[in-house]
Amino acid sequence: MVGGGSAGTALAGAATLRRPPRILVWSTNMISDPGIDLAGSSHLHYPPQVVVISLPCTSGIKPAWLLRAFEQGFDGVFIASDGDECGYLADCSRRSAGIVAEAQAMLGRRGMDGRRLRMAAICSVCAEPFARQVREFARAVAEMEA
User: Could you tell me the CATH superfamily of domain 19-144?
Assistant: First the structure.
C-alpha cells in the first residue's frame, strides 16, 4: 500500500491530487495492446503517468483488483476492452461492463467517485483513439479534484 495506513485511508488519499493523475490501464494481449503499442511507437502524446497491465480478456478482471489499484495510489483506472472482438468469449463486452459497474458501486460505497473507473473498446489499430481517451480521462480525473 502506498504511504502505509489502512485501505480506507489509501482510497481517501487518492482523492487529493497535487500532481498529474496516475492512471492504471488494463489492456488485452491480442486486441488493445497492439493499439497501445502503436500509440507509443507513433509518438502520440498521452500522460507519462499511465501504467499498462496486459491480460488475455477484460472479462477476467476482478472488481477487487480495480479497487486495489486505488489502494496502491492510482487516481484512475482505464480498461481498454476488446469490445466485440474478444477471441475468448462472445459476451466479453457484457461481462466486462458488469465488472465495471460492480467496481464503480464498490467505489461509491467507499466514498469515491465511480467516474474514476472508465472502460472503452480499443482495437489493435486504435492508437489515436487510445491516446485521446487516456488524455481525456486523465483530465477528467484531475478536474474531479479542482
Answer: Lumazine/riboflavin synthase (3.40.50.960)
